[in-house]
Amino acid sequence: MDYKVCFIQGDWLMPTVWDKFERHFKACGYACCVLSLPAPGEQGWYRVLHGKDARSSPLGRLVDFYAEQIAAFPAPPILIGHAMGGLIVQLLLDRGLGMAGIAIAPRPPQCVFPGIRSLLQILTTRVERIEGMRFLRLTPAQFSRLGHPASRQTTDPLYERFVGRVPQKLMTAVALGVGSRLFFNHERGPLLLISGSDDRMIASSVVLANYLYQRRSLAPTDFISLPGYGHLLITQPGWEQVADQIIEWLQRQLGCF
């Protein structure tokens, strides 16, 4: 059986962050797509977060947006997300969507404390007002210090290529756990949570606590902490090993050898 892999972008980062992973998975025989916003940049965020259902939280509207795309596929896909994208993977699986999910350095759902560093990072990030919306964007120094255990010479080119803006009210909702409650009502697909031991944005201990909470589900749930990796496991040197570990886990769960 051919499996489709859907990559979901996270906070701060643009969809181009998945380019290497997408090529790697395609080379291994997977059909791939990146689930991004309906329009690039700030306009895409505006269209999602100012939808028809004003009663739901910003995170809830974003998850609804991805759920509509996934429900249109002929077969349930494999979901892979990073940071907030990893939280969205967990919420989609909790709705019964997706064959399996991989959450890389994921932000935690409600009932799991996100950690002081993560909260401070959201509260202290530069605010930019664009077309009536308030956006947060990491500075190059923040990106180098929090997102990647490397020198500024290494991270500055990555900053220009990958870092975008994210709505302040969305990140506030994520930090407070608004719209991220798990219900465990469905027999969800298998879930793998991955952390980097040197992650200065979402600590490995937070991902471990997330894993222990997710074990309330009867579905297979696994946790991997990778030594020497920072928050950007999907782009830093050695990203191929992260991708290969995911593929090996998928082979064990889905039997696609």
Q: Would you kindly provide a written description of the structure presented here, covering whatever features stand out?
A:
Pfam families: Abhydrolase_6. GO terms for molecular function: hydrolase activity. Residues 10-237 form the AB hydrolase-1 domain. With 257 residues, the protein is of the alpha/beta class. The protein has one domain (4-254): 3-Layer(aba) Sandwich (Rossmann fold), CATH 3.40.50.1820. The chain has helices at 19-27, 41-49, 58-71, 84-94, 116-124, 140-147, 152-162, 168-176, 204-214, 239-254, and strands at residues 4-8, 31-35, 78-82, 100-104, 126-130, 133-137, 166-167, 191-196, 221-226. The strands form two sheets. Strands 2-1-3-4-8-9 form a six-stranded parallel beta sheet, with helices on both faces. The protein has a three-stranded antiparallel beta sheet with strand order 5-6-7. Helix 1 (19-27) links the parallel strand 1 and strand 2 (31-35). Helix 5 (116-124) runs antiparallel to helix 8. The longest helix is centred in the C-terminal third of the chain and has 16 residues, at 239-254. The chain is globular. 44% of the residues are buried. The model has no long low-confidence stretch (mean pLDDT 90).
Short description:
It comes from Pseudomonas karstica. The protein has 257 residues and is α/β, with parallel strands linked by helices.
Secondary structure layout plus pairing:
Blueprint: E1 4-8, H1 19-27, E2 31-35, H2 41-49, H3 58-71, E3 78-82, H4 84-94, E4 100-104, H5 116-124, E5 126-130, E6 133-137, H6 140-147, H7 152-162, E7 166-167, H8 168-176, E8 191-196, H9 204-214, E9 221-226, H10 239-254
